[in-house]
Amino acid sequence: MHTVAVLSLKGGVGKTTVALGLASAALRRGARALVADLDPQGNATATLDPPMTDATLTDVLETPRLAVIQEALAPSGWSDDLDVLVSSEDLELLNEPGPDTRRMDNLARALDVLRASPRGERPYELAILDCPPSLGRLTRSALLAADSALLVTEPTMYAVSGAERALEAIDTIRAQQNPRLRPAGVLVNRMRTRSYEHQYRIQELRESFGRLVMPTAIPDRLAIQQAQGACMPIHEWKSPGAQEIALTFNMVLAKILRSSRAGRHRLDHAEEPETAGRAVPHPPAAAETTSQFPVPQRLGDRETG
């Protein structure tokens, strides 16, 4: 089971959208997946629409035993192949900073239990940890438990400084507590291909982080809000915008899983991007322009449902 933490340092950048998009892409691949909703807002839990449970992830982080985990675990409304460790507002109480680190590894312990005893017969191939929009205790617990960390950002003036702080935290935890952790990349969300400001900020990200910036971005489309409002996977929402976004998530998930099989840290040497099923060369950073940062289908800057 590969475990990916999806994180950001500020709210409103679409972190949960990305976590749900990866879950949708996993279902499309036929992979059995788990979403652990660590965000006290519980947006992933609400969209995945599981039945009521007798416990929540708060209880699991307090007591990571199988009986408690089973009470907090439920099949999603999307598919029996996608389970949810459900969120609650009480998670915020566990996010406070402090010197007590005794429970920081309880999420990792709970995931180890689920590896050994998954709900149902099939093992999980992917666990997606939807983190709160901060570097508090909950996000750090996720980084302790994860194999990789995907940083979500928007093409704004704050993107570089936020990505720097998040990647520093990832490197610190990798060096001190979780040597298998590696950055899966920086994923830009809500990209408008005809916005000069967005083009400039993406170029700025590339100059700072090079190949850590994902070769595809999530375009700004109404289809995301429409699918989430209907509690449906983006791959099942029938519109041109949804098809474009679904293809992007397929590519992001494939890159995460492919690099996890490679089994090595890729800070300075990332994989080549994949377009239409084949690898394409990546130009050096000095020659890169935003034209090298395509979305799978160019639908312009209009909102396409």
Automatic annotation (TrEMBL):
Annotated region described as Disordered, given as residue ranges: 269-305
Q: Which Pfam families match?
A: AAA_31
Q: Where is the AAA domain?
A: 1-181
UniProt xrefs under CDD domains = ParAB_family
Q: Which domain of life is it from?
A: Bacteria
Please give the name of this protein: ParA family protein
Question: What taxonomic lineage is listed for the species of origin?
Answer: Bacteria, Bacillati, Actinomycetota, Actinomycetes, Pseudonocardiales
